[in-house]
Write a structure and sequence with these properties.
Number of domains: 1
Distance between the termini: 9 Å
Largest sheet: 7 strands, mixed
Strand order of the largest sheet: 3-4-5-6-2-1-9
Structural class: alpha+beta
Number of helices: 4
Order of helices and strands: EEHHEEHEEHEEE
Strand content: 25-35%
Length: 173
């Protein structure tokens, strides 16, 4: 069974340095990032982590740019990254996030696609029942996005600060 999705710019979540995007699955009322935010609202014991993660997104977006150091590698080599940054980077900024993971694809220092995530309870994303499905889904979507770049269905603007694509472009998973 094929699953279809579209890339959507998060208009209320675009900053001076970074444009954030997300994915909306066919028939869904919200993007994957919005779904993540809604689910995390009910995680009261992780409220500080969620607030700090949101602060990281703003800090990266408004001040720093999506530098590689802000994104953690989760397991094997893939185009999918995770937020928050590694603990050494978090300590420098005094914005700790312990167990919350948001999966994303950093396209360059100006464009990041936010997927979904959750509370990571195991050492690796692959073995965690809470986040493994989101991590695997993010990997599949990232591969498709890379393929769409190769096919020139997604292109860079002239400054490489944003992406250009047809509004009806569909990602097939």
């Amino acid at each position: 069974m094929n699953i279809f999705a579209r890339i959507e710019k998060l208009e209320n979540f675009c900053f001076r340095e970074v444009n954030y995007y997300s994915i909306r699955f066919e028939g869904a009322d919200t993007t994957e990032f919005e779904d993540f935010l809604t689910r995390m609202e009910s995680e009261t014991e992780h409220a500080e982590d969620v607030i700090n993660l949101f602060t990281w997104l703003e800090l990266i977006g408004d001040n720093q740019g999506a530098k590689e150091k802000f994104f953690r590698h989760e397991g094997y080599i893939s185009d999918t990254k995770a937020l928050p940054p590694r603990s050494s980077v978090m300590e420098d900024n005094k914005l700790p996030v312990h167990d919350v993971r948001l999966y994303c694809q950093r396209l360059n220092q100006y464009v990041v696609i936010l997927f979904n995530g959750g509370i990571k309870t195991k050492r690796t994303a692959q073995e965690c029942p809470n986040v493994s499905a989101y991590f695997n889904q993010a990997n599949r979507i990232a591969k498709q996005i890379n393929e769409l770049f190769k096919q020139k269905e997604i292109k860079w603007n002239s400054e490489h600060t944003d992406i250009i694509f047809d509004a009806v472009l569909t990602i097939e998973l």
